[in-house]
Specification:
Number of helices: 8
Structural class: mainly alpha
Oligomer: single chain
Largest sheet: none
Number of strands: 0
């Protein structure tokens, strides 16, 4: 089944509905860093980049507060379920992976599925925003564990992300010359 996702419309829609979009710790800026982290990790983990992007959008979208918020992941997963089939399509197995990743991202530490592990690591690598260095022992993927050991984690993630675009631009140029 081909996946149809209107990312611009979906991000806009979820952001407008989110009660926490302007929250300092868990708002839109955090979602964007999780997206960046997930894109960087996915290149090294083999994770499904579409599920990673959808996780970045939904995982904290239904928080009621910036503090401890029991059930916020399940509420984000419920929003994804509500919009599934309208603003985005995934087959049943991939939707279940997204739903699971969102629901359990705060309550569970580890998952053998590389896509779910990448989602959770992308979120945890952003703990630096609250002054916490991610503990490599609590990360799922080897590349996230390696990044967590960096002294300037935020700079390192930004550098890797910028390289994604540099590499894509180079490969697009070379492909257009053939």
């Amino acid at each position: 089944m081909q996946r149809t996702i209107q990312f611009d419309l979906l991000w806009h829609h979820v952001k407008q509905r989110s009660p926490c979009k302007t929250h300092y710790f868990h708002g839109f800026d955090h979602w964007m860093r999780v997206l960046r982290n997930g894109r960087v990790l996915a290149l090294h983990t083999g994770a499904d980049p579409v599920i990673v992007e959808l996780f970045a959008l939904f995982h904290d979208s239904c928080r009621w507060s910036d503090g401890y918020d029991t059930g916020h992941g399940a509420r984000g997963a419920a929003l994804a379920k509500e919009l599934h089939g309208d603003l985005f399509e995934l087959d049943d197995d991939n939707f279940e992976r997204l739903h699971y990743a969102c629901t359990w991202h705060q309550e569970q530490d580890f998952c053998d599925d590389p896509t779910i592990g990448t989602c959770w690591d992308a979120d945890r690598l952003d703990l630096v925003r609250v002054g916490i260095l991610p503990d490599p022992r609590l990360l799922n993927t080897e590349f996230a564990k390696q990044l967590a050991g960096e002294l300037n984690l935020e700079e390192e993630l930004s550098r890797h992300y910028e390289n994604l675009f540099r590499d894509n631009k180079t490969s697009l140029k070379s492909a257009s010359h053939h």
